[in-house]
Structure formats: C-alpha cells, structure tokens
Amino acid sequence: MPAFADRLATAVREKDSCLVVGLDPFLDRLPLQILEAAGETDDPRANAALAIERFNAGVIEAVAPFAAAVKPQVAFYEMFGPAGIAAYERTLGLAHDAGLLVIGDIKRGDIGSTASAYARAHLDPMPGVPAADAVTVNPYLGRDSIAPFLEAAGKRDAGVFVLVRTSNPSAVELQELSGHGRPLYEDVAALVDEWGRDLVGESGFSSVGAVVGATAPEALMRLRSLMPKTWFLIPGVGAQGGAARDVAPAFAHNGLGALVNSSRGILYAYGDPATSAWQDAVANAAKTLRDELREAAAHAPA
To answer: What is the pLDDT of residue 302?
Structure first.
C-alpha cells in the first residue's frame, strides 16, 4: 500500500478537493426521520448508535463527490458504549467503501505501554477490525507518547496528525507560551518536522502531519516555513469562525499540503431536523466549501 501521505495526495488531486468532513454527530440535531427510524430497541444507547450510523451513511453518500476524507471524532461514539464503538467502526467501513480516506480524531497522548495500546487499537487493530487511515495525537507528553504511533504508521502505511496550533480560544494559554524566544507551538512544529523525516513519501510530503487551526491565520505562513513537507489538517472553518480564504498560506505547492475540516457547518446545513431534504443540504454545503477552498488554493503564496 502507498504511504498515507501519497494516498492523500492522490485523493486530493483526483477529487480536486482538500475538504475533510468531520463526523461529529450531535444526537439532538439529527434529522427526525433518522431518529424515528432508529427507535427499535429498549436500549437507548443502542438506538442512539444506530441513528448515528444511519446519519453517517447518509452524510458519506452526500459528501463523497466533494470531499477527500472524513474525520469522525471518537468521543461522539464512545459516549454510547459498545454500541457506539461498533457504530464508529462501521462508519470507517462505510467511508472506505465510498472511496474516502478516514482520519480518526482520537487526540490520544500517553506514554509506554498505554500509548502502544492506543496505537494498536486505532492504527493496527486485530484482523477484521476496521482501522482509520490516520489519527490525531496530543504531543504534550513528548516523544515517548508519539513513538508508538510513528511505529504503527510506518508498519501500516498510516498517518499521524500532531496537535500544533489548535483552533480553540484557550489554545493561547499554553501554545503561545514563549520559552526559546518563540511560541511553544513553533517548537512543537520543529519536532513534527523532525519526527516526519523518515516517513516522507514519493509525493514529497510526510505521513506525519500537523493540526493547525484556521482561527490563527497569522500562524499558518510561519508554520508552513517550519514544516515544508507536512500535511496540515486545518479545523476551525465554519462554525468556529474561520473562513476558506484564511487557509491560503497553508498550501505548500500544486494545491497540496492542506486539508480543511468542517463539521457542524456541513453536517447540520439543513437547519430544521424535520426536513426530508437534509442530504441535499449537506451535499450543497460540502460542494460550496469545496469550491471556496479551490479558490483559496489558487491564491496560495507561491
């Protein structure tokens, strides 16, 4: 199998799209027809998981022509116990069947045997268990917490996206602390560049990527210079306030190097849960953002 970075480059080129759709299912915002059809058992968690799976199936069908990947946030599945985890795993299969790459948004960060267990669970599971193409990880515990994921990524030609400069408002409390005359997130970026050197594929990009929020556009150009061979996974466009035009500095060359995630702005574009045309609204929102991102890539710095 080609390296994750190369599979990603191929997907972005073939789709002419850098869009990632986050699969963050809020139960109280799902279409009523989905919720009503899922009330089949006496177990509320099983019903919730079934509704989520059916919703995801509809979303994946709607966005597959416009997105390069989907990014399920595992917390929205874990909250419903074993049935939720099963829905998460089946969602991975649905996405792969639709020709989409999958980034498991797990944000794990631990050391030793615990980190190894997380890496095996999500990147190198038992036979027959679906696995994501890449996962997100938290580097706060340092190299020890990342090494098992890098090992698993190398073994399975998978990817790892390391949190560098995130999109949440309180990120500045830690990520912009200065210890070496520059913000902490720049030190993390330098480590990401180092960790990814052994996993650079034929596309010229590494399978070790960086999560960089669209809500900090002033950081994107600087981070691109620090991580020239790194795929950026960029949350924060849409509901969090970032705009497609803000991500232009994140592209490296030939329209590659940046993946832009939108979750709520696409998933709930239908607004009214009572509507029967919810898939059309989801598809239209995905297409609109895909087109806006194409424009941003076209105006990226040379």
So the answer is: 59
d(CA 5, CA 157): 9
CA atoms within 13 A on the CB side of 62: 25
Q: Which residues are annotated as catalytic?
A: 107
The residue among 41, 64, 247 whose CA lies nearest residue 23 is: 64
In DSSP terms, 258 is beta-bridged to: 232
3-state secondary structure of 105: strand
Closest to 88 in 3D by CA, of 132, 44, 43: 132
Inter-residue contact 255 to 297 (CB < 8 Å): yes
User: CB of 255 within 8 A of CB of 300?
Assistant: yes
Which residues, at least 6 apart from 101, have a Cβ–Cβ distance to it below 8 Å? 7, 8, 11, 68, 69, 70, 95, 133, 134
110: exposed, middle or buried (C-beta count within 10 Å: 0-12, 13-18, 19+)?
middle
> Across-strand partners of 212?
165
Q: What values do phi and psi take at 136, rounded to 5? A: -100, 145
Per-residue model confidence as pLDDT tens digits over 235-283: 977 656 667 778 888 998 777 999 999 999 999 999 999 999 999 999 9
134 token code pair: 């890449």
At position 231, the amino acid (one-letter code) is W
Instruction: Tally Cβ neighbours within 10 Å of residue 141.
Output: 15
- C-alpha torsion angle, residues 17, 22, 152, 202 (rounded to 10): 10
Q: Are 244 and 27 in contact (CB under 8 A)?
A: no
Homologous superfamily of domain range 4-298: Aldolase class I (3.20.20.70)
**Domain layout of the chain by residue ranges:** 4-298
